[in-house]
Design brief:
Layout: E1 7-10, E2 16-19, E3 27-29, H1 32-48, H2 54-79
Helix pairs in contact: 1-2
Length: 90
C-alpha cells in the first residue's frame, strides 16, 4: 500500500468524485458494498432473463464486468487483511 494525495471534487456519500494523481479526469469512488449490491442486482436480472435473447447477453456482459471489479476489490482487501463490508455468498 502507498499513500498519495488525491483531489476531491465531491465527497457525497456513495458518490465521491476524486482524481487520482497522473490521471486527466476524475473518477467516481464506488464503495465496496455498493459495488456488491450492483453486482447482485445484475446477477438476479440475468437469472430472470431467457439466455437466448439479446437482453440477456447485454446483462451478462455487464454482470461479468462488475464481477471482475468485485473480484479485484475482494482480492485487494484480502491482501491487506481488511474485512469485506458485505456478506460474501460467492
Amino acid at each position: 500500500m502507498r499513500k498519495e494525495l488525491v483531489e476531491i471534487f465531491s465527497d457525497q456519500a456513495n458518490a465521491a468524485v476524486v482524481r487520482h494523481p497522473g490521471r486527466n479526469y476524475p473518477g467516481l469512488l464506488l464503495q465496496g458494498d455498493s459495488l456488491y449490491s450492483l453486482y447482485r442486482d445484475v446477477d438476479e436480472l440475468c437469472q430472470m432473463l431467457d439466455p437466448t435473447v439479446e437482453a440477456f447477453l447485454e446483462a451478462d456482459d455487464l454482470r461479468n464486468r462488475l464481477r471482475a471489479f468485485l473480484v479485484h476489490y475482494k482480492n485487494v482487501l484480502a491482501e491487506h487483511e481488511i474485512t469485506l463490508p458485505f456478506s460474501d455468498f460467492d
